[in-house]
Write a sequence for this structure.
């Protein structure tokens, strides 16, 4: 079996200490996940840049990775989130634009996006407005849970914050979004 299917992320990272080319297997395994998440937040053009920056930073800091954690995806989402923060102004403008047209970002194809525009749900505009109004740190936590499907512990690891902080930020974000949407829980709201 190839290394990409038999080794954990931690094993691949550790192997890359000796053979840097093994890190490419980690990229192959997770770049799609990171790209989809970033594209939903910033758009495809910025996502390409953020994915590159994410994996470059991860490669440079691979010796600092805690190999006791077999899954590196939360660690990678942490890098991506830090780079997204640099694009925060663009992200907020993006949500405000979506609030006007009623379509939330998605990494789907052009036909799917056209279909979404044609049949936009009433909840999308208020959701986009609510996302734009959140503090960036609260939005980061909410979207890592809702769009990246990370657990509270994985979010805490990704953002290097205590799990209690994850809970309080998520609660604050959910409350704001729930107030805008009525009683809809934003972490269960799917846009596709």
């Amino acid at each position: 079996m190839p290394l990409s299917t038999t080794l954990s992320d931690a094993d691949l990272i550790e192997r890359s200490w000796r053979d840097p080319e093994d890190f490419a297997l980690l990229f192959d395994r997770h770049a799609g996940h990171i790209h989809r998440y970033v594209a939903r937040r910033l758009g495809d053009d910025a996502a390409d840049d953020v994915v590159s920056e994410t994996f470059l930073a991860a490669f440079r800091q691979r010796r600092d990775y805690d190999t006791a954690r077999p899954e590196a995806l939360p660690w990678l989402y942490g890098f991506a989130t830090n780079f997204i923060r640099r694009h925060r102004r663009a992200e907020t403008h993006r949500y405000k634009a979506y609030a006007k047209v009623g379509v939330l970002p998605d990494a789907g194809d052009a036909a799917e996006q056209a279909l979404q525009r044609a049949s936009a749900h009433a909840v999308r505009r208020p959701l986009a407005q609510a996302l734009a109004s959140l503090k960036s740190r609260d939005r980061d936590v909410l979207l890592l849970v809702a769009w990246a499907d990370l657990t509270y512990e994985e979010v805490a690891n990704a953002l290097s914050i205590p799990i209690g902080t994850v809970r309080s930020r998520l609660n604050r974000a959910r409350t704001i979004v729930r107030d805008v949407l009525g009683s809809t829980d934003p972490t269960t709201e799917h846009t596709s």
Notes: The domain at 88-192 is CATH 1.10.10.10 (Arc Repressor Mutant, subunit A).
